[in-house]
Amino acid sequence: MTALIVEDLVAGYGDARVLHGVSLDVGEGEICAILGPNGAGKTTLLRALCGMVRARGAVRLGEVSLTGRSPDAVARLGVAHVPEGRGTFMPLTVEENLRLGAYVRRGKSDVDADLDRIYTYFPVLKTRLKQAAGSLSGGEQQMLALGRALMLRPRVLLLDEPSLGLAPLVTRELFRIVQAINEEERTTVVVVEQNAHLALGIAQQAHVLETGRIVLSGTAEQIRADEQVAQSYLGYRV
Ligand SMILES: Nc1ncnc2c1ncn2[C@@H]1O[C@H](COP(=O)(O)OP(=O)(O)OP(=O)(O)O)[C@@H](O)[C@H]1O
Ligand SMILES: [Mg+2]
């Protein structure tokens, strides 16, 4: 079954076009990696999927069209977005941020049970509940951003550069948790990542985006195995 279908997506800012017809499918319960150099349009693609930038073309969540919907409506339908820079509310406490994550959810029951579920993935957050989000370390803030997204009980999780600015050890731990969430909750994940090696380590499928176009698609193994392609498109070895 296909969770997310993207067809010929064209998007940009004002008159500047950034995505020039992006098409891809993400299978239900799959992890899909979006790789590519700086400025390729990876962030813009995630923004277009969640309604933050206007786009032409089609985006469907299963049978439901997401095209033209507001970010709130897309979230309510089960797509959670962890943006570049994490999107947590710095002056609010960890617990307030997590509770806000459930805010747009249709059924508000079981919020406490969901909090407990999130503490099993991120035990460190439970020890920081009354602390302002702004006082957390970078890794803890990324965990909070992920936890907040999970409070939506999303069907699809969109992650934009979760490794940005984090130490390698923390990044590996985060990716391990993303993989656990995917396996235990069957959450479909689309992860944008500069660290191709890490992303391909947990993904089943991957797409390489370059100047707003998908230039390469395949299984994670295929992309990883194609060293020449990796060097020319990604600019480094994977
Ligand atoms: N808010 C904005 N207004 C105008 N142009 C923007 C805006 N955000 C991004 N762009 C432009 O769109 C293009 C694609 O940017 P985008 O952030 O999607 O790339 P990216 O692949 O996520 O890059 P990076 O790896 O650096 O995060 C760039 O040329 C960028 O300057
Ligand atoms: Mg980006």
Automatic annotation (TrEMBL):
One annotated GO biological process: L-amino acid transport
UniProt similarity note: Belongs to the ABC transporter superfamily.
One example GO MF annotation: branched-chain amino acid transmembrane transporter activity
Domain of life of the organism encoding this protein: Bacteria
Protein name (database record): Amino acid/amide ABC transporter ATP-binding protein 2 (HAAT family)
ABC transporter domain sequence ranges: 4-236
Keyword Aminoacyl-tRNA synthetase among UniProt keywords: no
Record keywords: Amino-acid transport, ATP-binding, Nucleotide-binding, Transport
SUPFAM superfamilies: P-loop containing nucleoside triphosphate hydrolases
One matching Pfam family: ABC_tran
